[in-house]
Design a protein that fits this description.
The protein is α+β, with helices and mostly antiparallel strands and 160 residues long. The chain is 27% helix and 38% strand. Strands 1, 2, 3, 4, 5, 6, 7, 8 and 9 form a nine-stranded mixed beta sheet that branches. The radius of gyration is 22 Å and the shape is elongated.
């Protein structure tokens, strides 16, 4: 670290407690409430979340309690959150949306898998979320044919 950039903590304070202070006023910031929603159920609901890391098409980004409200389109990947009681927790998520409003963070995704082994979760993302299953591929193919047929018919009506 360059000189003068060291993190100076008072005795008895951990680095974790430093994260929960507002960067300008050094006053305590209330932790976040995280809710991971699937189409038909609530996958996880956690209070006291001190940080969240999510993946988008542009890369990973982190959320701390004092961050301004935001919305992000999530890519299939690993969602990481940290609480005082559980420590760092990993969740494999499919495509979805993250919305932060005040202390509440809602993550709405198509599918999610929990686990403790980061390697297995990364493999699950690649195996289950990044590859389209045969049924979904056939549905997309049929839809593409229907769209093409509709455009051809509309073009022929326009020319008549």
């Amino acid at each position: 670290m360059p000189p003068g950039c060291e993190l100076k903590l008072r005795p008895g304070r951990s680095r974790m407690s430093r994260r929960n202070l507002h960067p300008r006023s050094n006053t305590p910031v209330a932790p976040m409430n995280l809710k991971v929603l699937l189409p038909f159920l609530v996958f996880a609901e956690k209070a006291g979340v001190s940080r969240i890391v999510a993946e988008t098409r542009e890369g990973s980004f982190g959320l701390l309690p004092h961050r301004l409200d935001c919305v992000a389109a999530l890519a299939p990947g690993i969602l990481t959150y940290e609480t005082e009681s559980e420590g760092e927790v990993f969740v494999a998520v499919d495509e979805g949306v993250l919305v932060k409003t005040g202390p509440d963070v809602l993550v709405s995704v198509r599918r999610a898998l929990g686990g403790t082994d980061l390697g297995h979760l990364r493999e699950a993302v690649e195996r289950e979320f990044l590859t389209l299953d045969e049924h979904e591929q056939s549905v997309r193919s049929v839809l593409a044919k229907m769209e093409g047929d509709l455009i051809r018919r509309m073009a022929s009506l326009h020319n008549d």
